[in-house]
Every structure is written in structure tokens, then in C-alpha cells.
Amino acid sequence: MLQPVENIVQRLQRQPMLMVLAGLIAGIVLADCLRPDVWVVAVGFVVACCVAYRFRWAMMVAVVMTGMVALTLRREAEQIPQGERLMQIELHSPRHSYSEWHDFDARVVALHNGEKWQRSSLDVRLRVKPSLELQAGERIIARARLRGYDEEQEYGRYMRRVGVTGVIYIDSADIVGRETSTAGRGAGLRQKAMQRIERLGLSHDVESVVAAMSIGERSTLNRELRQSYVRAGGAHLLAVSGLHVGFLFVLVNLLLFPMAALRDGQLWRSVVAVVVIWLYAMMVGFSPSVVRAAVMFSLVQVMITLASGNALLNSLSFAAFVMLVWDARTLYDAGFQLSVVAVAAIVVWGVPLIRWLVPPLQGWEGSSWWRRLLRWVWRWAISAVVVSFVASVATMPLSSYLFGELSLWSMVVGGVMVALCAVVVGVALMWVIAPVGIFESAAAWVLELSAGGMNSIAKWCAGVDIMSHQIEISSTACWMIYLGYLLFTLALWSLPRRE
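The chain above was modelled as a monomer; its predicted structure follows.
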């Protein structure tokens, strides 16, 4: 009778970082609800650490207090300056372009108090006149007012939760100076990569999709094409995220596979792979999802080097833990929630399902090469379908709650779209890294075929309304669905584990 419970306990004992992450999240939520003073949580954290030194049970209390400290310190640093101030503002990535305004993600890096500059780190939305022709990566000095969001309204409360302090409007008369910032290094890499993609001479829609998926350049995407991907359940493919970093991780390891035959080759392969991953993260912009994926795949690369096994759930939990300790407000970011839920579902549901559908390659060692190739292709195709299906099922309630859009197409054509996206990202990045002239025609043909196929699928799916619905569920319904998912996962973990 107690065997299922013992199986669950054993599974949880193998995932210590998962329990630590749960305690950290609990602390962040408590701090968001209670809004304690910083000195209260500081004293509580010190006391919890002292008690944890003597009693192991208090370690979880210390983790909870860590979450409370992380969020409270961030909120203390979000003091909105009053009135017009001279500011140094760093432009990160463009968001929307309108006839009268261009929107940017930006950060106020310094404020002038009338006598000297003081360092700051306020994330804001910046609205500027198109005539200014500002670009991502620039730093401007302007006299402006920061208008804070109203936390009494739902949108304002959400923006403050994810760490965006307010909005700044800039006209030409407000700007005192302009210069290139350190953030421009990544923008410079992205600009060079975009120039190499433009050399291929792709059609406009294909070039837009290739640039968005491979290097995070979405400025040329038109609204109609983007909406087609939304209705087809493939909007996440247009924004560089953990999925795209995963494609790069596989590509780099395949290209550097011969290094494993050299002395210390595995070590050097891992070093090169980690460096490439973080250069890519800098090029596409250090968004939370990209940084989180870079941390996770760096850990996986180290595990491969140390031959310590594929503790993927622990790696994901550790990556999320580091992100939340660094900035606890990330917990409320939609991209963070969607990517963590999707990857967790792939690990706890998708991997066991793939192993069940496609057993290991035992008894195939002596088979002909074409049979082994056929089996590999079959395993790859099954894996793509399973990964897409479980990720879609896991994120569907959250997507419906956050965006009010429920697309069933992601479960039908998701596997094909993910497979084509892998081809687009892989070929585009190989061309960006090594733009050898003799491969130009081949790269252009493959990208035109794969990205054009994705566009055709998205547009066709967008025209069939029966599979896409405007459904918005309540937060209570969303929580209840994920409670059901949790119980289902525990039921799976209660079964005896097959080695």
C-alpha cells in the first residue's frame, strides 16, 4: 500500500533543486502579498540561517526567506524619481512601431540629482518620435519625466510585478546627447548577422521569419504574418527562446564532435560550446528566457563533460533558481512561466513517453546502415511530435489565461513546425558563422523551402477558425488545471521506475 508513496518520495529525493526552487517561489509570493519592510525580511533571513546551522529542517525556511529578501530588495530599488530629471537611458530592444511613436525596452542607468550623476537600474518602456531614428544599443541623455504605472489597475500591477517601472516619452527637444552603449555590442553582432542573411536574397516574408527565428531581429515582421503564427499556435517560434538556444546547443556539439577524439577534447569542446552559447545570448539580447536557457544548457554541457548523467529537471530548477535570486520579479514574466512549464513538461512527460514509444537501439548494432538511419529518423520524428504535443498541452491553460487565445493547431502541426524551425535556425546560424560563397545557393534554397513552408502552414491554419478560439479562463481555473497536472505527474512518479 505504501509502495507508490515511497516511489514518489524517492523521485523527489533525486530532485533536490526542485524542492529548493519551490521554497524560493513560496518566499517570493509571500513577499508580494505581505509587502514587508526590508529590515523585517533581513532579520528573518539571518535568524533562519542561524537556526538552519543547527537544525536541517530550518533550511527550507531559510530558502523561503531568501525569496522574500530577493523580491523586497528589488522593490526597494524601484524608487520612482519625482518630476523632470536629467537621465541616461540605454535602449535595449524595439517592441512596437506606430506612425507617431516607436516603443523600446529601455533602462535608466543614471540619474542627475542637480549636482552629480547617481547610478540607477530602472527598467522602463521608452516612447520616442520616429523622426529621432533611435536604434537599439544607443544611450541617450535626456531631460524627461518617468511616469510610474498605476498598481491599482491590472495592467499596471502586472508591469510593476515583472519589473517595468513606468513609461518615458522622449521628443527631439528633450535629448541632450547620444552615444553607443555597451548594450550595442550585441546589437552590432546582430546587425552583421542580418547583413549576411540579406546576402542570400530571400523573399521578404521568408527573410523576416529567418531573421526573427535565428538572430532575434523582428523589426521586419509584418502584423499579418505574426498574427498567422499566433492563430496557428506557433508564435513562440518567432521569438528567440530556450527552444532556439537548444537548437544551437545541438548544432555546436555536432559540429565539434570530432574534438572528442583529441586529448582533453571533450573539455575544450564544452568550453567552446559554452562560449558560443553566451555569445549568441548577447547577440539576440539578454532576455530572461535566453539567459535562463543559456544557464541551463551550460550546466548540461558541464554534466556531459563530467559524465554525471542528464539531470535535466535539476538543471532547469537550478537555472530558474539563479534567475529568481538575481531578479525575483522574473517569476511574474509570461515568457519565464511559459518556458519553464514547457521544458518541465518535456522532461517529466515527454522524455518517458519517447522512451516508451521508441525503445533503445539494442540488437541493431549489426544492422545495415540504412536500417539504422531509418530508425534514427523515426526516433527523431517521434521525439519532435511528442515534444511539441506535451509542451502544447502543458502551456495551453497558461496561454489561455494570459492571452485569451486557445489554439489547437499546436498539437496538430506543432511537430512539423518545430522540425522546420530547427532546420531554419541551424542553416541560418551556420551561414552566419561561416558565409562561404559556394554554399550560398544551397543555404538560400533550404531556407526558402523550410521557412516558406512554415509561413504557408501558419497562413493555412490561420484561415481555419474551428481550431483557434478566443477563450480566456480565470486564474482559479488555471490553478485547478495545473493542480490536476501535478497530481497526474505524481501518479506517474508513483509507478516503479524502469532503469
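The longest strand covers residues 84-97.
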